[in-house]
């Protein structure tokens, strides 16, 4: 017998933005350009876990992130609220794919309230969000693929620990051999 396919409800995006970023991933200023995306993990019992994050192109740091068992608007909206709370003066170019959360009118209203410019990747062009996709690859190869996770809590703790390590300890050639937050604090001094 053939397996039944899951039925996905196709919906039209409420808001679509141009690709303002246009693969210009260079910036010297923190909070000038933010990239966002959601990725999926599975724990041993098959449960899916979702990680939504915002990457600051100025110093390659993860500005905010949320881990949850549902890929929904709340996941992305909460990630945005954490980013804005920790960076209230940021008026960033905000780039994402065309996921349903980012094309929602309520999300656009949140961006407008912060005076952020919305930018979206072209359909089927994940390279338009290359540094964010690169971060997912790093996180999964250095943490996720090396372990087996039996529960949501185990995976969440591992993600928390890894992002702290990534922001505060993991050196990057692009940042002159410094960790992202170390690079940011050094840039503020000069």
TrEMBL record:
Domain (Integrase catalytic): residue spans on this chain: 26-188
InterPro entries, alphabetized: Integrase_cat-core, RNaseH-like_sf, RNaseH_sf, Transpos_IS3, Transposase_IS3/IS150/IS904
PROSITE patterns (alphabetical): INTEGRASE
One Pfam family of this chain: rve_2
Protein name in the entry: IS3 family transposase
Species of the source: Romboutsia sedimentorum
